[in-house]
């Protein structure tokens, strides 16, 4: 069982998810920067934002505690390939560490300058790809939310959904 939920948030989505998870489970949430372990290698869940397939801040969380679940937060829709990419790029080879994906909000204006410049270019590609897909078929809610975020530079996810994490938490006790 986990005794804390750690998070690293760039624009607020990871913090919001960690707090929602904390409310649903009764497990306290802490910023990974502010976290002081109760005992060495305490078992935690980690919530971090995605950048190029990497879960940012995961290394810091691993140095402070034993990460038993990883929640990756990104602006895009959930895709079947996300788990395999996360395992490969974040050295999470074992199925014993579940990986959850959660769509987060996107706020281009809140990003640090280097990320803002990268995402200004990337959002054009994302918007073009989803607009092309929308011409062929109807976008699902997550895809539509991603398209809006990419076109406008900000927006909310289709839903702040923590149900898969909560289901895992209930069965991992």
Poorly predicted regions: none
- Relative strand content: 15-25%
Helix content: 40-55%
Largest sheet: 6 strands, mixed
Described by its quaternary structure, the protein is single chain
* Number of alpha- plus pi-helical segments: 6
Order of helices and strands: EHEEEHEHEEHHEH
Q: What gross morphology would you assign?
A: globular
Structure class: alpha/beta
Number of strands: 8
**First-to-last CA distance:** 5 Å
**Radius of gyration in whole Å, from Cα?**
16 Å
Count up the domains.
1
Text of the CATH class: Alpha Beta
Remind me, CATH topology?
Rossmann fold
Q: Mean of the pLDDT scores?
A: 93
- From the 3D coordinates, which CATH architecture would you assign? 3-Layer(aba) Sandwich
Structure write-up:
The N and C termini lie close together (5 Å). Strands 1, 2, 3, 4, 5 and 6 form a 6-stranded mixed β-sheet that branches. The chain has a two-stranded antiparallel sheet with strand order 7-8. It has a single domain (4-171), classed as Rossmann fold, CATH 3.40.50. It has 173 residues and is an alpha/beta fold. The radius of gyration is 16 Å and the shape is globular. Helix 4 (113-136) packs across helix 5 (141-152). Strand 1, helix 1 (13-25) and strand 2 form a beta-alpha-beta unit. The protein is built from 6 helices and 8 strands.
SSE layout and pairing:
Layout: E1 4-8, H1 13-25, E2 29-31, E3 43-51, E4 54-55, H2 58-64, E5 66-74, H3 82-89, E6 99-103, E7 106-107, H4 113-136, H5 141-152, E8 154-155, H6 163-171
Parallel strand pairs: 1-2, 1-3, 3-5, 5-6
Antiparallel strand pairs: 3-4, 7-8
